[in-house]
């Protein structure tokens, strides 16, 4: 097979990216000229390393309560908490909304890797454990034996670190051929900010615009003449790579404590995170919108690039730090002057 453009859309463990990063693998010399930019940079977020399995409930299942049966709705989000409360046996079944009212409801079970559910040794043990943890759910009716069997054998998945590689393309010196990366091959992170698919689509849209010689952000025709394939690929990397770098920062700090991770450091982190978001929301309100709210609050607004979100957040952080230091300095000076007068 001969092609002028290879698009590496092969996911987080991308062979295409690994091949570009590996200086020793045999390939054309131009492919290894700047191999370092394809090395992955990774940061552990509080959500990295969590394990997830899915248990399927029927559509519109019911939850008994004091006033009768609550019939669940497909487009409503639910979190059903267990009666267990200890760090390694507490569990929350998370249900995301689905459009189709007849669709089965996937309940996400997300825990630390040393949680009790990973030690269950048979489908029956799973059934017994969950029945005890959720006594109000009629699990014997909601979940078939086949589903317990599937659930038990499923390996689940582990949330990755927040990671990306700065390199997104490499071009032949002739300018007529190249290799380009999109999606998880470039960036991956835990699903807390719900931007994984969007970010991949963003790459594809940007690449399409670059190949058509249009502005990557506004989609307007540009003055620049991107006559060669390599010009388009370089433009794609120039604009998109800083955007991905900002996205990874958003993934690290956006909303990493939403799984109610049980460790003490998680609980402290969750309180600090909440305090930070509340402070930014209050400042946004009292400044009549002059100061931005927390970046995660604006991440669904398509008017903002990830870079803009993080730049605004950084400016606010700098302002808050400056205010804090000025206040601390004033307090300190006040105390010194008072002591001077008294002494
Ligand atoms: C637990 C979890 C929950 C998530 N939840 C969300 C969410 O709610 N919302 C959201 O937007 N994102 C979510 N994401 C992220 C989202 O799944 C990814 O961002 C998205 O799937 C990336 O798409 P992709 O096409 O780049 O890579 P992938 O979906 O990984 O697709 C890569 C494809 O390439 C194929 N492939 C790999 N190697 C080769 C090879 N050598 N030859 C041929 N084919 C190959 C693979 O089989 C695969 O089909 C979640 C991720 C995880 C782990």
Automatic annotation (TrEMBL):
Keywords (alphabetical) are: FAD, Flavoprotein, Membrane, Monooxygenase, NADP, Oxidoreductase, Transmembrane, Transmembrane helix
Give one Pfam family: FAD_binding_3
TM segments?
A: 315-337
Example GO biological process: kynurenine metabolic process
Tell me which domain of life the UniProt entry assigns to the organism this sequence originates from. Eukaryota
User: Could you say which cofactors this protein requires?
Assistant: FAD
- According to the entry, every stretch annotated as the FAD-binding domain falls at 5-211
| GO molecular function annotation | FAD binding; kynurenine 3-monooxygenase activity
Cross-referenced PANTHER family, in alphabetical order? KYNURENINE 3-MONOOXYGENASE (PTHR46028:SF2)
Report the protein name in the record: FAD-binding domain-containing protein
Q: What organism does this protein naturally occur in? A: Cyclophora tenuis
């Amino acid at each position: 097979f001969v092609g002028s453009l290879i698009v590496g859309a092969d996911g987080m463990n991308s062979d295409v990216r690994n091949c570009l990063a590996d200086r020793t693998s045999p390939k054309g010399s131009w492919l290894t000229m700047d191999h370092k930019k394809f090395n992955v940079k990774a940061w552990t977020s509080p959500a990295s390393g969590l394990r997830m399995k899915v248990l399927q409930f029927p559509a519109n299942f019911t939850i008994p309560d004091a006033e009768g049966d609550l019939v669940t709705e497909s487009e409503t989000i639910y979190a059903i908490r267990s009666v267990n409360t200890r760090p390694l046996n507490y569990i929350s079944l998370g249900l995301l909304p689905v459009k189709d009212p007849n669709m089965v409801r996937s309940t996400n079970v997300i825990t630390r890797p040393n949680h009790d559910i990973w030690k269950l040794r048979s489908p029956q043990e799973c059934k017994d454990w969950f029945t005890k943890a959720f006594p109000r759910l009629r699990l014997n009716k909601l979940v078939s034996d086949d589903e317990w069997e599937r659930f038990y054998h499923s390996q689940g998945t582990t949330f990755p670190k927040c990671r990306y590689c700065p390199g997104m393309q490499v071009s032949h010196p002739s300018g007529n051929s190249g290799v380009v990366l999109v999606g998880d091959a470039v960036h991956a992170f835990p699903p807390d900010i719900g931007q994984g698919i969007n970010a991949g689509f963003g790459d594809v849209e940007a690449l399409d615009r670059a190949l058509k010689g249009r502005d990557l952000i506004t989609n307007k025709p540009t003055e620049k003449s991107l006559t060669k394939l390599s010009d388009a690929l370089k433009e794609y990397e120039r604009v998109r790579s800083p955007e991905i770098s900002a996205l990874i920062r958003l993934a690290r700090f956006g909303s990493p404590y939403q799984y109610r991770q049980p460790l003490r450091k998680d609980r402290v982190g969750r309180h600090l995170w909440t305090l930070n978001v509340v402070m930014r929301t209050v400042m946004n309100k009292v400044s009549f919108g002059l100061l931005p709210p927390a970046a995660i609050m604006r991440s669904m607004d398509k008017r903002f690039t990830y870079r803009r979100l993080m730049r605004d957040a950084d400016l606010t952080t700098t302002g808050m730090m400056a205010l804090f230091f000025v206040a601390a300095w004033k307090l300190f000076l006040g105390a010194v002057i008072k002591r001077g007068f008294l002494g």
